[in-house]
Each structure stands twice: as C-alpha cells, then as structure tokens.
Design goal:
- By secondary structure, this protein is mainly alpha-helical.
- Helix content is about 75%, strand content about 0%.
- It has a two-stranded antiparallel sheet with strand order 1-2.
- The radius of gyration is 30 Å and the shape is elongated.
Length: about 425
C-alpha cells in the first residue's frame, strides 16, 4: 500500500525526499524551460525594438544633422519598453517624461553650468516637477535619469538643446510604432473573461459532482475555488481599464469600445453572481453534511447545476464575439439559456421537501438574476428585459399548468422592481 500524507481535506501520496543536487537540477531545468519560452515569444518584439532604436539614431543623424544623437535611441528604448503589446498612453507618458527631463537638464545646465552640485540640483528639480505632473514612479525615474545624464555628459557640437530635439525624435517614433503596430486590444480582456467564466462553470460542475457523489469535501474544494475568482475579477477589471484607454486614445481601436462597455457591465454583474455562488457552495457543504437529500433529490439538483454551467459557458462565448451585432444576438441566446435554468428553480421540486434544501434553491435565484443581468446590461434594452421576464414566466406557467402568481414573481412585480430593466429587488 502506498504511504499517504494527511492534509486538512484528505490524504495525498507521500513523495520521496530529494537530495540537494536533485532539487538544484530540477530548479535549473525549470528556469531554462521558462527562459527559452520567453525568448521564443520575444523574438518579434526584440527585432522591432532594435530596428526602431537604430532608425531613430539614423533619422536624427542623417535628416537633422545631429552629431551622435544618443538620446534619440535612448528615449525610444525607454518609451517603447519591452512589452509585446505596448500601450499608447504608457508610451506617451514615458516619452514625455524623457523629453521633459532632458529639457530641464538643458535649461538648468545653461543657467548653472556643469558639475556635481549642479547635477544634484537638476535631479531634485526634475523629481519635483515629475511629482507635480504625474503620480507614477516610472515617470519620475525617467525624468530624473534623463536630466542627470544631460548635465554629466559632455555637450555636443550642436549646443545643449540638440539633445532635447533628439529625445523628441525618439518619443515621436515610439508613439508612431505603438500607434501603427497591429494588435488586438481585446485579447487580454477576452483571456481574463475566459478565466472568469471557466472558473464559475467549473465550480458549478464540482458542486454537481459533489451532490451526485454525496461528498461534502468536493463541495468544500469548490468553495475554495470560488474564492479564488476574486483575483481573476481584479485582473479582468485591470485589463478592461487598459483596453478602454486604448479605445479612447487610439482611433484605430475605436471599434472595440462597444466590447469594452459590454464586458465592463458583464464583469460587474458577474462579480455579484460569484459572491452569491460562494454562499451557495457553503450551503451545499452544509446540506451534504446534514444529509437532508435522498438520492433522487441530489440527482435532480446536480442536473440543474450542470445545466447552469452549460448556460455560463454560452454566456462566455457570447461576450467574446468580435462584432457588436453578433455579440448581442448571441447574448440573447445566453439569456434564454440562463433564464431556462432560473425558471427551473422551484423550491418544492428541487428542495427535497426540507427547509435546508428549499433555502439552497432560494439562494440560487440571486446568482442567476445577476448572470442574466450580465447579458441584459451588455446587450438588451430595459423594455426588452421586462418583456423577456414576463414571457419567461408565462412560458414556465403554461408548461407546468400553473398560474404565473404561483412562482411568487408577477409581471406587476417586475414592472415595480425593474423600472429601468435592472433587477433591483427580485
């Protein structure tokens, strides 16, 4: 029998201890693989940076006639940086910081001369000006670095302000490269959206598996996984802010603005849905520990969790549609899938006849409302939202031979609590 090691959630196989040499070899191999992966993915950007740096130097030297225009290449390299998808605002800020830093150094050098104490004054003034203009640490460092180099390096044959012109050449070329470089500004946000909805769907399927296997530990691990979605949501919001800046400052990416608006609204509603999902996961752990469900009840509820996971995956595919028209059309399909799952949340049918089971079903309703609102906020009008809810209630009532009032949510209730198309208090 394999030796196992006890943990808080179960046991795992024992791993034979490794020697120091084996650990070192494993560490070096892992670092080498990661290094080669970075090299392969950076070849194109490295070539672009090299060509642009030399191009800035050539332009300042050949076209403008400057002698040894090192600051043209320096400003470009610092502004462009080394990122596979440079951000226009970031490049502009760094380019301005480099140019202003060199200009401050030139101005103070004309008035104070060159020397060590003059360099100290220049750095101090540059830092103060940078802190006044911008709160970023990178902006401050670039201004102070360029200004101190201007004071300490010998003056060229063209005079002190030639170096400021060289910096302008490098900054402008960095902006042009960033502006014209082909890139999909949606890609980082799409990747984060995929991570978010994949996590939600995985948690729902894990809860389904926990119910089928009557295993509260699986439900507990699903709860732990749901708590980890907070990091994904924060990363998604950060990427959406960057993408929004791209669509604002770069006219070539204005067409992606509708995607950003849809994704921001969907992320906000999905955040609320994830919070509800954590509460649901804790309740599933509780009902499984207490044994309030029989086999048939657990199977029915597990099937519902599977259907909800399928609907979340449809929502994910809908949000990442590149065209606004196709995205909104797909979101209506996602809304129908989520609505079908929401309409099946009947406490009497899925609750297993117990108070704890019915409470679990009731807790699922806010989560589904928030997910449905993710589609409504992204693509539907308020009138369309109210019409859809009313039609869904009527369809559900007709299929089960009930009255709409049997569900506890009437069309009048929707009109009262959803005047603008958003579920304020369902």
């Amino acid at each position: 029998m394999t030796d196992r090691f006890a943990t808080a959630t179960g046991t795992v196989p024992m791993v034979d201890p490794q020697t120091r040499g084996e650990r070192l070899g494993r560490f070096l191999r892992r670092r080498a693989r990661a290094g080669w992966s970075r090299v392969r993915s950076s070849v194109g950007q490295a070539a672009l940076v090299a060509v642009c740096a030399v191009g800035a130097y050539w332009f300042a030297e050949t076209v403008l006639g400057h002698q040894q225009p090192l600051f043209a290449s320096t400003a470009l390299l610092i502004a462009l940086g080394f990122q596979r998808e440079p951000k226009l605002r970031k490049v502009a800020e760094v380019a301005v910081g480099c140019t202003v830093g060199i200009l401050i150094g030139d101005l103070l050098m004309v008035g104070l001369g060159r020397g060590l104490w003059q360099a100290s004054v220049v750095v101090f003034v540059s830092v103060m000006v940078a802190r006044f203009l911008d709160s970023g640490a990178t902006f401050t460092m670039q201004m102070s670095l360029q200004s101190v180099l201007v004071v300490l390096l010998p003056i060229g044959t063209g005079g002190p302000f030639v170096r400021s012109q060289d910096a302008i050449v490098g900054g402008v070329l960095a902006l042009l490269v960033t502006f014209l470089s082909p890139q999909d500004v949606r890609r980082p946000a799409v990747r984060q959206l995929g991570g978010l909805y994949d996590s939600i769907a995985t948690v729902l399927r894990d809860l389904s598996r926990a119910l089928r296997e009557d295993d509260s530990r699986t439900a507990w691990m699903a709860l732990v996984a749901s708590r980890g979605t907070h990091t994904t949501l924060e990363a998604l919001r950060k990427e959406l802010r960057v993408t929004h800046e791209q669509t604002v400052f770069n006219p070539l990416h204005r067409s992606s603005r509708s995607f950003v608006d849809d994704a921001v609204n969907a992320a906000d509603r999905s955040d609320l849905a994830v919070r509800s999902l954590r509460i649901v996961a804790r309740r599933v752990v509780s009902v499984l520990d207490e044994g309030v469900f029989d086999d048939d009840d657990r199977e029915r509820l597990a099937a519902w969790f599977d259907d909800a996971a399928d609907a979340v995956e449809i929502l994910h595919r809908s949000l990442v549609e590149p065209q606004a028209e196709g995205r909104h059309r797909s979101l209506s399909v996602a809304r129908d899938a989520l609505g079908a799952s929401a309409s099946a949340l009947d406490p009497h049918q899925l609750g297993g006849g117990s108070v704890h089971g019915e409470a679990l079903v009731m807790l699922l309703r806010p989560m589904m409302v928030d997910l449905i609102e993710a589609t409504i906020a992204a693509g539907a009008t308020p009138a369309g939202a109210r019409k859809w809810w009313t039609g869904e209630l009527a369809r559900r009532a007709n299929s089960e031979g009930k009255g709409v009032e049997d569900f506890g949510v009437t069309p009048a209730h929707i009109a009262e609590h959803w005047p603008d198309g958003r579920a304020h208090a369902l």
